[in-house]
Design a protein that fits this description.
Layout (H helix, E strand, L loop, with lengths): L2 E9 L12 E10 L2 E10 L6 H10 L2 E7 L3 H18 L6 E6 L11 H11 L2 E4 L10 H14 L23
Length: 178
């Protein structure tokens, strides 16, 4: 069956982390990660403030966290640190597997948060960083693989911080100039 990784997705409403704006949605997905079968148990939370008490419970249950903001909305980026602080407070440790995801990177014309600012903020907070686009499916699986590798490293007594940043996937095919 493989190891189970409990991953919690947090972020403000409207950042593009889910298509169904419910309070929470959970699912299990069996995958092969680095030649090992495993199961991702993902809890995708809603961003509404009124669910703060529920969020503490979700954090207690989670092993790794994917914090999502929209690169097109600076206020969602500014709230990432609050989510990270809540995770470390509830877990009572700064050493928590966390990946920060700047979503909607396909919307360059609407971008409010430069990639290098997202990356330097993640480094300052001691988190991994990935930009993604749920709309175009760019890098949408990588945050989950990265956080699972971080969880696995901690289970083995290794430093989760030592996990290498994933290389962005290169698009295959030709680039046509019109």
């Amino acid at each position: 069956m493989g190891d189970v990784y409990k991953i919690v997705v947090l972020g403000d409403g409207g950042v593009g982390k889910t298509y169904d704006p419910t309070i929470e949605d959970s699912y299990r997905k069996q995958i092969v990660l680095d030649d090992e079968a495993c199961i991702f148990e993902v809890l995708d939370t809603a961003g509404q403030e009124e669910y703060t008490a529920l969020r503490d419970q979700w954090i207690r249950d989670g092993e790794g966290f994917v914090l999502v903001y929209s690169v097109t909305t600076r206020t969602t980026f500014e709230r990432v640190e609050k989510f990270r602080d809540q995770v470390t407070r509830v877990k009572d440790t700064d050493s928590v597997p966390i990946v920060i995801v700047g979503n909607k990177c396909d919307a360059e014309d609407l971008r409010e948060v430069p990639k290098d600012e997202g990356k330097s903020n993640a480094e300052r907070l001691g988190c991994q960083f990935i930009e993604a686009s749920a709309k175009t499916s760019y890098n949408i699986e990588e945050p989950f693989y990265t956080v699972a590798r971080m969880i696995r490293a901690e289970r083995r007594g290794e430093s989760a911080a030592a996990i290498e940043e994933p290389e962005p996937k290169k698009k295959k095919g030709k680039c046509n100039i019109l």
